[in-house]
């Protein structure tokens, strides 16, 4: 068995850096991304901190069940009311999603 390597990542590595890692009360890391010409704060939320809460993902218009890891994103200039909870896959595919979600006639509007 080879020994464990405890070396820092290379300077050009692609992943979240220590500067972006602002752990908050929700766990996970927070970073800033550019989308639609704006700066967005993005926080990855651990499932344990979302226990007992459900949210509706704006990317797919489906519920995010309780205790499921997801992403919270909001424009930097906006306040708390503009935070949106996304599935991780929906946030990663946000540029391929349409803004108008087509619901069936009997689907509830949330």
Secondary structure: elements and pairs:
Layout: E1 30-35, E2 38-45, E3 55-56, E4 63-64, E5 70-75, E6 84-86, H1 88-92
Antiparallel strand pairs: 1-2, 2-5, 3-4, 5-6
Portion in helices: under 10%
Helix-strand makeup class: mainly beta
Strand content: 15-25%
Average pLDDT: 75
What is Rg?
17 Å
Q: State the separation between the terminal residues, measured CA to CA.
A: 55 Å
Low-confidence stretches: 15-24
Order of helices and strands: EEEEEEH
Per DSSP, the total helix count is 1
Question: Describe the biggest sheet?
Answer: 4 strands, antiparallel
Strand order in the sheet with the most strands = 1-2-5-6
Oligomer: single chain
What would you say this structure looks like, in words?
The chain is mainly β and about 110 residues long. The strands form two sheets. The protein has a four-stranded antiparallel beta sheet. A two-stranded antiparallel sheet has the order 3-4. The protein is about 5% helix and about 25% strand. A hairpin with a 2-residue loop joins strand 1 and strand 2. About 10% of the residues have low confidence.
List keywords for this structure.
110 residues, mainly beta, four-stranded antiparallel sheet, 1 helix
């Amino acid at each position: 068995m080879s020994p464990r390597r405890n070396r820092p990542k290379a300077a050009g590595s692609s992943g979240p850096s220590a500067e972006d890692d602002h752990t908050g009360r929700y766990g996970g890391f927070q970073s800033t991304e550019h989308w639609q010409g704006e700066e967005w704060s993005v926080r990855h939320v651990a499932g344990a901190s979302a226990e007992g809460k459900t949210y509706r993902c704006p990317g797919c218009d489906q519920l995010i069940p309780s205790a499921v890891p997801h992403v919270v994103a909001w424009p930097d200039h906006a306040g708390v009311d503009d935070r949106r909870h996304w599935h991780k896959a929906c946030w990663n595919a946000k540029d391929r999603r349409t803004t108008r979600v087509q619901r069936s006639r009997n689907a509830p509007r949330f």
